[in-house]
Amino acid sequence: MSADASRALKVITGSSRFGTTAEKSTVAQAAKVLVEAWPLSTTGREDICRVYTAADAPDFELRITWRLADGLPTGAPAPKFTVLKMGEETLAAADMAYVQFACRSDRFAGSTTAAHIVIGAERWGTPKEPEGDVEALKDAYVTVAHSFSLAMAEELRCEKNGGLPARPVLDPA
Known about the structure:
This protein has helices at 3-13, 27-37, 134-155; strands at 18-20, 46-53, 61-69, 82-84, 89-92, 96-103, 115-123. The chain is globular, with a radius of gyration of 15 Å. By secondary structure, it is α+β, with helices and mostly antiparallel strands. It contains 3 helices and 7 strands. A hairpin with a 4-residue loop joins β4 and β5 (89-92). A 7-stranded antiparallel β-sheet has the order 1-2-3-7-6-5-4. 25% of the residues lie in helices and 25% in strands. The longest helix is centred in the C-terminal third of the chain and has 22 residues, at 134-155. α1 runs antiparallel to α3 (134-155) and α2 packs across α3.
């Protein structure tokens, strides 16, 4: 996770101390499973990891996920999302964000098409109305989703990192 994403986690959770699900909950492990799932799109989301606040902080669970999409995004997103100019599609809300990017890589044996990968960062558990600066929360969720998207693109050896910039783009489309 990038330093920007670490700071974003503090915006999201209000804490600077975290725990994760397990040692094997890594981008590398998720990339391995993603490559094995290719070329079939996934119907649900698969975990990369889950991030929890430290034991002495209020309960909070952030779920970082991946899925394989059928292709380019179609249709309009739900009204709660702001569309950002990054990857094939980036959607931000005050409690979640998704980054979709195209990956051409030698890891996808015999493929002539790109894999369309969606990385999500979302608050899990009982839905609650977001508290605080909604725009700052949107930026924070996108920053975390971008960090994991870039890490996944690098792990998969995607051409040009799947078209993702080195830093998140937070400008609306």
